[in-house]
Amino acid sequence: MTADSARAPRRARRPLRASATIELVSLAVLLVNIATGNAWDIAALFGPVHGVAWLFGILATWRDPQRSTGAALRAVIPGIGGLLALRALERADTQAAPDAVAGARREPACPRSRPRRRPTWRSWPPTVPTGCGPPSR
What we know:
- The protein has helices at about 5-10, 15-35, 40-65, 70-75, 80-95, 100.
- By secondary structure, the chain is an all-alpha fold.
- The protein has one domain (about 5-100).
- Helix 2 (about 15-35) runs antiparallel to helix 3.
- The longest helix is centred in the middle third of the chain and has 24 residues, at about 40-65.
- It is elongated and about 80 Å long.
């Protein structure tokens, strides 16, 4: 993974990050307005701003190629949904390419013909499939 491709999802999610921040700040302003006296002018200004930022966050999450059902459901939560969805999408990016992030290759898992069971006196010594671990006896 190159440096440009690592920054690509971050650039693509810049509008979602902005709308999530605006959504949270506008909700905080609305809650402070209610607590301090409920000025109509502030509510008339920040109410629609909060609503538009909330809807934009839902749409931006829905359009993301890495979205999951959980990320889409988190985006619907008013106030912090955009930030929760952004966090879920960034986790999906790191889980999608752990080798590229860590810079190491994983070895393939050892194939097993059947699930490993607790050894009994009849199956002692336990055998290991060829090519995995120490040689069998």
